[in-house]
Amino acid sequence: MGNYSKLITSTLIVFILLFLEPILGSFTSTDFLDHSHWPVIKRNLLIAIAAWVLIEVTSLLKRQILKRYDLAQEDNLDARKLHTQLNLLEKVVIFVIILIAVAFIMLSIDGIRQIGIGIFASAGVAGIIIGLSAQKVVGALLAGIQIAITQPFRLDDAVVVEGEWGWIEEINLTYVVVRIWDKRRLVLPSTYFLEKPFQNWTRTTADITGTVFLYTDYNVPFNKLREELTRLLEGTPLWDKKVNVLQVTDSKEATVEVRILVSARNSPTAWDLRVYIREKMIEFIQKNYPDSLPRTRVSLLNHEREGRRDN
Fold it and tell me: Rounded to whole angstroms, how far apart are CA atoms 287 and 305?
């Protein structure tokens, strides 16, 4: 009932305004109200209330549609897509409704109408200055509308922006709020995401592949590492059972680089899985193959030979 209370209230106000004029006729002989101003007042009130009703109807329709799409679900790609579109479109519709309502109210009042006509008809330095100063605002608004249509990101997408990793928390017409992993908030203008590159880890799906690097000695048994990796992954619910890869990706003077690829259902889970696998694999090497840990070799052959010659 709470969702409809504002609509009922506004409808009652419109009904009262439509039938209030005959009642006010009895007050025209007093100073209570100048009855000649009543048509303009009534028209402006009706415009304002109509705008209010349209805004409430828009919000109500959005809430009713989004009730069927829960962001708390594990696979919430469609829900995030619809929430992003409707939230931004709601802001656009509300902005247009308010703009049109204010325009109609201004045009219905003689003094304001003349001022408005003079502003719109004037051409000169003032108009150029206003146009230049409004470029960024208009650009931000258009960027917000473009984001709503093209959707380079959605609500709750995992992104990397300005070197920070976090989630899209708010998408407004002129700015976007990114909730960083340590609970800080990064606020960026909408135009940023159309002008600069950024990483979106959940653009098409929420699942993601994580990387773990290990550096070991040349004598480490790689097949044993692969067996241990498989055992660890099969024993943890963090793994989504899709990616399980261990490869030697580089070799240097003292160490070899082992890259592990694992997958998880979303980016926070992938982070926890990477940390878990890194820790357990290091423990496995420490316990079973301590000689395979990175070490520095020093050759003393020349010194030994020189010592023998001296003797």
Answer: 37
Residue 32 vs residues 25, 27, 46: alpha-carbon distances, Å: 11, 6, 21
Domain boundaries, the chain: 2-148, 158-200, 208-292
175: Cβ–Cβ under 8 A, 6 or more apart, which residues?
140, 187, 188, 189, 190
Share of the chain above pLDDT 90, in %: 24
Q: What is the CATH number of domain 158-200?
A: 2.30.30
**What are the tokens at 80?**
């995030």
Q: Are 160 and 198 in contact (CB under 8 A)?
A: yes
**Residue 176 CB neighbour total at 10 angstroms:** 22
pTM for the model stands at 0.52
* Per-residue tokens: 149: 């249509």
Token digits for 203?
């653009």
Phi, psi of 170 (to 5 degrees): -135, 140
CATH topology classification for 208-292: Alpha-Beta Plaits (3.30.70)
pLDDT digits (tens, 9 = 90+) for 71-103: 666 666 667 767 777 777 787 788 888 878 877
On whether the CB atoms of residues 97 and 55 are closer than 8 A, the answer is yes
